[in-house]
UniProtKB/TrEMBL annotation:
This is UDP-N-acetylmuramoyl-tripeptide--D-alanyl-D-alanine ligase. GO terms for biological process: cell division; cell wall organization; peptidoglycan biosynthetic process; regulation of cell shape. InterPro entries: Mur-like_cat_sf, Mur_ligase_C, Mur_ligase_C_dom_sf, Mur_ligase_cen, MurCDEF_CellWall_CoF430Synth, MurE/MurF_N, UDP-N-AcMur_synth. It is an enzyme of class 6 (ligase). It comes from Persicirhabdus sediminis. Belongs to the MurCDEF family. MurF subfamily. Gene3D superfamilies: Mur ligase, C-terminal domain, Mur-like, catalytic domain, MurE/MurF, N-terminal domain. Pathway: Cell wall biogenesis; peptidoglycan biosynthesis. Keywords: ATP-binding, Cell cycle, Cell division, Cell shape, Cell wall biogenesis/degradation, Cytoplasm, Ligase, Nucleotide-binding, Peptidoglycan synthesis. HAMAP family: MurF. Residues 114-299 form the Mur ligase central domain. The lineage of its organism: Bacteria, Pseudomonadati, Verrucomicrobiota, Verrucomicrobiia, Verrucomicrobiales.
Amino acid sequence: MKPITVTQIIQATGGQLAAACPSSMAGRAVSAVSTDTRTLKQGDLFVALKGENYDANQFLANAQGAGASVILAESVSGVDLDKTAVVVVADGLLALQRLALWYRSQLNIKVVGITGSNGKTSTKDFTAAVVGEKFKVNATRGNLNNHIGLPLSILSTEEDDEVCIWEMGMNHPGEIAPLCQIAKPDIGVITNIGTAHIEFLKSREGIAEEKGALAKALPDEGTLIVAAVCDFAHYFAERTHADVIFAGNGRGLVRAEQLHLTESGSTFKLVIGEEDTAMVDLPVAGRHMVNNALLAASVGHVLGMKAAEIARGLNGSTLTSGRLRRYDSAGITVFDDTYNANPDSVAAALETLNEMPRKNGGRKIAVLGMMGELGIHADKAHLEVGRLASEFGFQVVSVGENAENIYRGATEDGGDAEQFNDITAAADWLKSFCKSGDLVLFKGSRSAGMERVMNKALPQG
């Protein structure tokens, strides 16, 4: 973050310097922003946020003690105003968003906004790897992709960054458009439309309408990139004034040809238009990951990169932890896809393992937890996931009371399955059951805690 002064913070947020602060503090500058006193560093700006179960305005003394140079808050409680500048605002979250909007206006950058039901983070990782071959990149870290996280991502941008790649996530209607207003994307990527968050958006059409806010927000000179296989691709194309690029396996302007899937990834010829080609050796398994890589390749193309440069980036890409990460545990191949889950992403992960060759008689084992935010669709979705795993011939292990329908779906036609309500019991069973040569998938929503089962049962090493 390039330095910003207290005066600029006041102008951006509409706040006021606390009356008891010396007027000389107006020139004080900060170069980083934090909303968490546990990670706050000396000299940072601390923004106090309120939520349903917390109010950081009660911990301003902690922020001062941790070294905050400036505090943006709704009160001055507990702060020594001779040492720390406090900008008082009516709403901490709104002030954070206004500050990010102002800061974005100071930056000379290209912004890539990424949304979709599945694959946002993987696409962001691939895009950062591609674009980083030619440009200095700022990309979303962790899960900073919502109404709080996106402003923090914007405020982390350095003065010499050239391209920013930011995820835009949502849970409820009306959340994507405000993120676009703050980020002002030049390039929009919509990965797909599935059933994630269908509890709140009621239907896939409702989800498409929400994700389509990114398409509508793009400027006339911008570009929308959509997966060719997405059944809402033309719906999005009709809702933007920007140029549109379709990307996909064997179809679209940016496409994969001669695709060959392997246990550790895939190889394919990257084709852009009719003449620009390069071979890609993607180090991440899964047909759906090829689709995400092609979306990233399309961003590179829009930014003027050649296929050879794009291929170098994809060949060296790594994904954020918990996204189909592959590792070995005493000869057992583990696929860590524990970051989150919905019916579409579980199906994609199952299909990925199902297509992989197995050695020495190894078995396919799916350790699955509940999928959240499905509302009235939850029972049916869990049953269908269990049925699909059984059809593919997986040994199914469902974990948690809310995952029992996975077990029921898997055993309807005689499939092999086990159900455990307790994480430790599931881990103990897996320890005794799994053997060298097996392929084991761990997947579930964040609240399912599937990484705990994985780490107890099959630790990396």
